[in-house]
Amino acid sequence: MNHQLYKQTKHHQHEKYKANIILSQGHVLKDFKVGKGVLRPEKMTSIWLARYLFFNNRVFADKVVLDLGCGTGIQGVVMALYGAKKVLFSDKSEVGFKNTKENVKKFGVLGISEFFCGDLLEKISKDSDVGLIVFNHPFFSDPDENAPESMLGPGELVHRFFEEAKERFPSTPIVMPYYHKAGPINDPAEQAPKHGYNVTERLRLDVRTGLQRGPVSIYEIRLA
Ligand SMILES: C[S@@+](CC[C@H](N)C(=O)[O-])C[C@H]1O[C@@H](n2cnc3c(N)ncnc32)[C@H](O)[C@@H]1O
After folding, report:
1. How many other C-beta atoms are found inside a 10 Å radius of the C-beta of residue 78?
2. What's CA 123's distance to the chain center, in Å?
3. Closest C-alpha to ligand 1, atom 8
4. For 19-45, what is each residue's pLDDT tens digit?
5. Are 120 and 68 in contact (CB under 8 A)?
C-alpha cells in the first residue's frame, strides 16, 4: 500500500465522533456527526468541495441535486442548507447511509431530502429531474483488504459512473473533486473525456492542512 493510503487508512479506523465543519467565518456546521469508520470530511478533500459548493451556490440553487457517495452527507447537507430545492442522497455503504440520515435530521433538512442505498445511479430514477450531480468519488485504487471501503475505487468505477451518467442524465452537469497525489487512474480530467465529457477546472488548490495535502482540483463536467 502506498504511504498516503496507509496514512489515510489508519486515520479512518476511528469511533464515531462529532466535528465542526468550518465553511467560512461565521458559517460552521457544528457537531457534524461522523460515524464509525466513515470518511472524515473535515480532514479530507471533502472539506474543500463543501467550501466550493458553499461559495458557489449558483451551481445548485433551486435545483434537485444528487449527492452521490454521500458518506456523512456533508455535500448534500451544504446544498440543502444553502439553496437546493431537493437533495437526493445515495451511497452503496449502509454505514455511510445511516450517517447521512443522522446529519440530515440534525441540520433540519429532512423535508427536502430523499435517500437511496445502491450502486452508483442504479436507484436514481431517470425521471427524477436531477439538475446537478456531485460525486466525491474514491480516489485511490490500491486494492488492499484492510483499507476502508470508502476510500477504494477500482479504476473501473469512474468509467462505469460516466457511462451511467451519460445514459441516464445526459444534460446534467457534474461536479467532482480530485486529489492529484492519487495519480491519473481516477482523475476525472483524464478519464471523463474518454466518455465524451468536457472538463473545466473550477478551482485548483495547494492544500496545506488535513490528511490530503497537495494539489486538489474541483471540476465541472458536462457532455460535449
Ligand atoms: C470519498 S468518499 C466521499 C464521502 C462524502 N461524500 C464526502 O464528501 O466526504 C466516497 C463515498 O463513495 C461511496 N461509494 C463508493 N463506491 C460506490 C458505489 N459504487 N456506489 C455508490 N457509492 C459508492 C463510499 O461508500 C463513500 O461514502
Report:
1. 28
2. 17
3. 46
4. 999 999 999 999 999 999 999 999 999
5. yes
Which domains, from first to last, does the chain contain? 3-223 (3.40.50.150)
Could you tell me the distance, in angstroms and rounded to a whole number, from the CA of residue 206 to the centre of ligand 1? 23
Residue 155 has pLDDT above 90, yes or no: no
Q: pLDDT of 190-203, one tens digit each?
A: 999 999 999 999 99
Using a 6 Å CB cutoff, which residues line ligand 1?
39, 41, 46, 49, 69-72, 74-75, 91-93, 96, 119-120, 136, 138, 149-150, 157
Q: Which atom of ligand 1 sits closest to the CA of residue 152?
A: 15
Could you tell me which residues are beta bridge partners of residue 220?
Answer: 175, 200
Confidence of residue 50 (pLDDT cuts 50, 70, 90): very high
Tell me what the mean pLDDT of segment 149-157 comes to. 63
Q: pTM of the full predicted structure? A: 0.93
3-state SS string for 160-178: HHHHHHHHHCCCCCEEEEE
- Other C-beta atoms within 10 Å of 218: how many? 22
Question: Exposure of 92 by Cβ count < 10 A (0-12 exposed, 13-18 middle, 19+ buried)?
Answer: middle
3-state secondary structure of 32: strand
- Ligand 1 atom 27 nearest Cα: 71
